Amino acid sequence: MRKKLVSLVLAGALLFSQGGLAVRAAEPEESGAVTNQDQSITASVNPTQIGEAGGDVTLTLNGQGLTADAWNVDVKTYTQDGNMEMTGRYPAAVKEKRADGATITIPINKMKNGLEYRILVTDSNGSEIQQLKVMQDGKAASTVSLLPSTVAMTDDTTVVATFEQDVTAGGEAEKIKPLIYLASDGDDQANRRNLEAADTVTVEGKTVTIKLAQKYDAKADTALYVKEGALKTADGKLVKDFKWAVMSRPHVDDIQVTPGILSAEGGQVVATLKGVRLDTLSKDQIQAKLIRGAETSPAEIPIEVTPGAEPTLTYTLPANETDNTISYLLKVEVDKVPIYEPTVENPAKAAVVSVLPKGKTAGDQTLSHMSISVLSGSEEGATSTHAVVTVRKSLGQLKVHLKLSGTNLDDTKTKIRAVDENGIVWPVIHVPE
Question: How far apart are CA 381 and CA 249, in angstroms?
Fold first, then answer.
């Protein structure tokens, strides 16, 4: 029986010699493969410690013949003590993989305990090149509720949130973007606008400015949503979730009058309106009137309105021929909606100009008039100087607002006493402007 000849093809060359056969291995092909048998490839990561807000860390490889396909990286997440894997809940993302490294994105840590990210770098054969660690801080135990004083859409692509105190970003701009969005106040999925790559977020002082790359059609019920982790207070406390209505229509925030005090001869006054989108207002959309002293009817003083980004109202107050200071209160309406000036911090704020009597200077302390109003509701017959109230058995308290107008009124020198007809002295809370 003939034997079958089985030939074995070797990846090499057969060399004939007197001593018989010798086998020589062929040279490897150029496949881009990289091994680390001689430990010539090293890896490093920076930074090795990252805050609870997460962010990007940079993986860097050093060595010869590196290509993006010739090495691999795998990241697993563990609790800070290394005893429990948390990759499912807190997966790190490898992006922008290059020949000499990659960018790894660490997610936000919502736990109080820290996390450990183990970065395993292997060569094309699966052999370990290096194992690295990145430690992440736990969520700060201290959080605080902080709401903006205003959120306004100053134009079709810009949203500005203003706070009463300084705030800082909770992390890099790209990391806090997913925590900020615009949507309907009653439904955060309606008319929703998430921040995109081309949008920018700037946090500076008391202001957070969001610049959208594309026009956003804000509705009457549009609100700004900010999730915990996006912002911090100046002392490092995380700001809790909040939403705030966005003003997208023209709105007056402040009325600045110059000068605030005139000599007995009277003179011209210019009031400047500060706010949002005021440049869209026409002259006819701004209405104003002046109230003299404790009177209730408007004074017959013409007011010239000049529209613009900061509209101005110009008027001339007459000479004061009395022995007392006369104050004039400017009341403004935009599209027939009154501008309410008092704030929580300054409930006495008002656009008032005082005309001094003869013999008085701008540095003197003078009293123009006092007005009174009952916060719980007054009855018919009440005036700015007299409040008429029917006291009912169910009325637990009576809040009366007494307002003084004049010049240079100092709360350390100006005191008010409330005494009823029976001689009983009532407590007074002083709120000076």
Answer: 38
Span 251-355: which CATH code? 2.60.40.10
Bridge partner list, 2: none
- pLDDT, tens digit, 9 for 90 and up, residues 190-246: 999 999 999 999 999 999 999 999 999 999 899 999 999 999 999 888 899 999 999
Task: In the chain, list all ranges with CATH 2.60.40.10.
Answer: 42-136, 251-355
Q: 47: cis peptide before it, omega within 30°?
A: yes
Structure tokens at 386: 């007299």
Residue 141 carries which side chain, given as an amino acid letter? Answer: A
Residue 13, pLDDT score: 35
Please tell me the pTM assigned to this model. 0.55
Other CB atoms within 10 Å distance of the CB of residue 242? 18
Task: Tell me the C-alpha to C-alpha distance, in Å, between residue 196 and each of 60, 107, 172, 212, 248.
Answer: 28, 18, 14, 8, 21
What lies within 8 Å, CB to CB, of 209 at 6+ separation is 158, 159, 160, 161, 201, 202, 203
